[in-house]
Write a structure and sequence with these properties.
The structure is a homodimer of 204-residue chains. The first copy, chain A, has 204 residues and is mainly alpha-helical. Chain A folds into 2 domains: 46 residues, Arc Repressor Mutant, subunit A (Orthogonal Bundle), CATH 1.10.10.60; 112 residues, Tetracycline Repressor, domain 2. Chain A is built from 9 helices and no strands. Chains A and B meet through helix 6, helix 8 and helix 9 of A and helix 6, helix 8 and helix 9 of B. The structure holds a DNA duplex (30 and 30 nucleotides).
Chain lengths: 204, 204
DNA sequence: GTTGGTTGGAACGATAGCGTTCCACTCATG
DNA sequence: CATGAGTGGAACGCTATCGTTCCAACCAAC
């Protein structure tokens, strides 16, 4: 029903020249969207201010995205929330350290931290947001599961451990410290975390 | 400077009759404040709607609290966020179990859960909120510290453990499961948590 | 050069919350 | 019973955002 471009059966010519969206405007809008989000929160996020901060008209924004939720759903997958997969580090301990460091790298950005906390608070009210970040959660879950399976194959963990609770232990303490209480985490802390998390996993 | 009542040197009589705040109205406002908060979030929380939902005029609200932040700061200490102190349970394991159960009791309420997540997201933007919940955080910290000291005295923990990180492990995983991912936690899960948390603490 | 579809920007009316002000009403006190 | 401070409720003007609509400017394709 919806034709992307002039998609009629007699398309005379394709749009060109000024008649094509300028990428720089899209980028400016995306950037100011996240910047405003971290500044005032999702609920108080005004698309009008986003456009103004991007130095762009409101119509430019609404022509690209129909609503705030749609914009968030479209843009969220583009930011660096993905924990870079580090592969097999050879031991459970090294794998844990890799995950924690990757998670910390994400949570260290002030903007991302705020947006994440806001996101988690808003998910219960905006189903579209949940759908948008489900892939990330799934990826994280898969990755942890992989680590657990490798550890079991190595004989470092019993096959009876609970994968879900292990996931809670891997991300919970660090998330609590960095995102909830605005604490910090240096190398010493990470090392302690690795030690304690490993012990918890082996007891699970 | 500010006289509470008619505190002049010639105070003829004290306010009475209809000229005194009705407790039921204050209560209705408090309840609808939290109800609305959990429904739409702090940022989108409209005091006008709060008053309307309480079946009360706006002036009634503004006469009691000057602003949303002030209302939150005043009301937050009154809700059941306080983890009931369970005292010495005789062993580290029992103490951990008691803390986790108390924390779960709080996080099980759908309303409290949402408000807590919202609160944590908003703290970075509203300094007044941080001041309001600081006592709770301090109480929780003190309580955990007490547990740790008892465990050290019993010989269950080494005196070198890091109290802060232990706090992260005690609340982090459960908060992550219940508040962030809207998971659930039955008795089996709590028992597993107790086991794993104790192992982590002993490795810290 | 002309064309044509899309652009960014500025205006619109509508809706909603803010914080204030005014007013009739209430009711224990004296 | 008369008093009067404090009440709850309705209205005010103000500001901001919403989503839409209109318009001149633009520029590769023909």
């Amino acid at each position: 029903m919806k034709r992307n471009r002039s998609d009629d059966n007699h398309s005379p010519r394709r749009p060109s020249g000024a008649a094509v969206m300028r990428v720089q405007v899209t980028d400016a809008l995306s950037r100011s969207f996240f910047s405003e989000w971290s500044r005032v929160g999702y609920a108080a996020l005004s698309l009008e201010r986003v456009a103004k901060a991007a130095g762009v008209g409101k119509a430019a924004l609404y022509r690209r995205w129909p609503s705030k939720a749609a914009m968030a759903s479209d843009l969220l997958p583009r930011v660096g929330l993905t924990l870079t997969d580090t592969g097999d580090k050879g031991s459970l301990e090294a794998d844990i350290r890799a995950v924690l460091l990757a998670f910390r790298r994400v949570l260290r950005h002030r903007m991302i931290r705020r947006i994440l906390a806001d996101l988690h608070a808003e998910i219960g009210r905006e189903p579209a947001l949940e759908a948008a970040i489900r892939p990330f959660q799934q990826a994280r879950r898969d990755r942890v599961q992989l680590i657990v399976e490798r550890a079991i194959a190595r004989g470092e963990l019993a096959p009876t451990v609970d994968r879900e609770t292990i996931l809670d232990f891997l991300v919970g303490p660090l998330y609590w410290r960095l995102a909830v209480t605005a604490g910090c985490s240096d190398v010493t802390h990470i090392e302690r975390l690795v030690r304690m998390t490993k012990a918890a996993m082996m007891a699970g």
